[in-house]
Design goal:
Largest sheet of chain A: 6 strands, parallel
CATH superfamily of the largest domain in chain A: Response regulator
Number of domains of chain A: 2
Structural class of chain A: alpha/beta
Largest interface: A-B, 68 and 68 residues
CATH architecture of the largest domain in chain A: 3-Layer(aba) Sandwich
Helix content of chain A: 40-55%
Oligomer: homodimer
Radius of gyration of chain A: 26 Å
DNA sequence: GACCGTCACTGAACCGGTAAAGTCCCTATT
DNA sequence: AATAGGGACTTTACCGGTTCAGTGACGGTC
């Protein structure tokens, strides 16, 4: 069974069939003025009959327009699958891209240098019209690379991390502060935070905010540990925190993502501690996962899908000229109390 | 602050700088014979100095080669984020694409008709050299569309679902059978299965296999329910199954993915049932999630990353001519016992 | 020393669109 | 009646690569 020799319909065939020139077909398909209704219809009819769709390479070659944007993600595959964040984020991005018939070029990279190189080829090779940048580090090589290239981007991260790049961010500092205040208001004094990878800029921001909040509230027992965002690391951190004795053991733990909170929950169970009676747990991001545990997880909740959509919208603004007012925050995560947080001490008899 | 007028380095500039013709540069960059070592070096040097990268549109326009493959996913965004499966799968695909400097065009679609249309534009517009098809339904419109187009694809799904398309699949029937046998061997007779969306072909396959296995083992108490793969649906199903009384209540439940198993676990806890003493739970896919619960989840485990990689490899084979031996299974998921399965009845005193 | 074969490289014709300038015709204006 | 203006198309350059039929030089052969 051989493939038929592939008809290869081009704009010329459509033009011939409609009895017009290539130019006319181009006008029609780009809904530009200068054609009569009748001709337009004939052209579309011809195109439909021949099953023609414009060759995107040819189109972007001559129009120097590109109908794709890039997203490179730099995290170990092992962690990516688990983080509900990314897929939700991508689906938000998609929702905006689709309505502008734009595609998403996705690539997983191993390190930021590789990513910078990728951005270079993407841009110089005219494969993308712009790109979304996530997971900023201290000393991130990307802002410089992007600046040098003139590549339109939207950075996902606080301006203090993304330099002069147009950026969209969540106000993590405020969110952390709210989380700590909430737990403190419940009566907790020994609050711990299981943070994400220290290399990430947003981790540092949260870490600093946590310290600050603890100081402001005079919480002597505040502690933080860094992880790699994986469930295993979250479990390990939790185990280490909870195995402290008596007055050293935290009564509440804030996690930097859902997965670690879930892991923490089962570590608590495994150690015979009741949640929230003996220890309160607070998750971050609030994917569906938080409602699937027992007890359900209180979380700092935000609309990740909407976040992605907003980022994509901003990217389009940046691409089509006006960088004006590019940078802006999206709504701060809000505290969503569920079953895993409560006043401390009810379980002191243990 | 204005963008500099964008230098726009082209192959001509490189050629001029190296003192050769465009053709020579092309030869060099496609590592084709016909150039002296010295010239080659001069060309590369010139390219590096000018920071040139070939324009991919121009390249694929004239060479009719495309350096991207498509993947359209048709599931509600809400579920996608949660399914560790997809990100892991994508990362596997990526790992193979990257080494051939090929990109992944990702698109989330709302229904299969939209996807079929997308494949049409992707292919006719020469945006992709091939595509990966997932989540087959009964009466799936895609095989016909793909056949008509002559689009190179690899279908992820059992040949009985994917028609004559080259396909890669996991042997779900065997895996289900193994799962049931395992539980039966532990002594369970009342085994339930919380399946995925009935529309999916692989769900039907598993459903049939479960029935068959139950019949073969003469398990009178076997039951199945369909869900939409979401954690909530999994929780609901579990609640309904476990609220049956006495001899109607299953002593073991198999889930079609991780998320539902996690949800099931907390429903059991919520209902005061101990796992595995009162009820055994068996998850599917075995992402890291299964090791983060308490008790840990026994699961049918497979290498999703490797699956993705294998699919990508097969797609390349299909694209580069030989469909020969395209279709093949990947290793069948293997049973990985953990803490959520045990012989029944130890908890009958409840 | 004429002839042949290679090797290294050039030149020009594409690939399939877009865009800007040009053509033609028809109507309104002076 | 001559002219301007505008709508409806057509023509014709590109866009930035790839490909392939040359071309010239050089070495070897008889």
């Amino acid at each position: 069974m051989t493939t038929p020799p592939a008809p290869r319909v081009t704009i010329k065939d459509v033009a011939a069939r409609a009895g017009v020139s290539k130019g006319a077909v181009s006008l029609a398909f780009n809904q530009r003025p200068g054609l009569s209704e009748a001709t337009r219809d004939r052209i579309f009819a011809a195109a439909r009959e021949l099953g023609w769709a414009p060759n995107s390479s040819a189109r972007s070659l001559s129009s120097r327009r590109v109908d794709a944007v890039g997203l490179a993600i730099c995290r170990p595959a092992r962690l990516l699958g688990l983080e509900p964040f990314y897929m939700e984020f991508v689906s938000g991005v998609e929702s905006v891209l689709t309505e502008r018939s734009c595609s998403l070029l996705l690539r997983l990279v191993r390190n930021l240098e590789e990513e910078a190189g990728l951005l270079d080829t993407w841009w110089k090779g005219k494969q993308v019209g712009g790109s979304i940048l996530v997971d900023f580090h201290a000393d991130d090589p990307r802002p410089a690379a992007v600046e040098r290239l003139g590549l339109p981007v939207v950075a996902v991260g606080h301006p203090s991390l993304t330099g002069s790049l147009p950026s969209v961010w969540t106000d993590d500092a405020t969110a952390v502060t709210e989380a700590v205040r909430y737990l403190a208001a419940l009566g907790h004094r020994r609050i711990a935070r299981v943070g994400g990878a220290a290399a990430f800029g947003h981790t540092s921001i949260r870490t600093a905010a946590f310290d600050e909040a603890a100081r402001a509230l005079e919480l002597a027992g505040a502690r933080q540990v860094a992880t790699d965002f994986s469930g295993e690391a979250g479990a390990r951190a939790t185990r280490s925190l909870l195995s402290a004795t008596g007055a050293d053991r935290p009564t509440a733990i804030v996690y930097d993502n859902d997965i670690m909170a879930v892991a923490g929950l089962s570590v608590a169970a495994e150690m015979g501690l009741r949640v929230p009676a003996d220890v309160s747990l607070l998750a971050w991001d609030d994917s569906q996962l938080c409602r699937l545990t027992h007890p359900t997880l209180s979380a700092m909740s935000h609309d990740v899908h909407g976040f992605g959509a907003e980022v994509a919208r901003t990217l389009f603004e940046v691409i089509t000229g006006g960088e004006g007012g590019g940078s802006h925050p999206v709504p701060t995560p809000v505290l969503t109390p569920r079953g895993s947080t409560a006043p401390p001490g009810r379980g002191n008899h243990m």
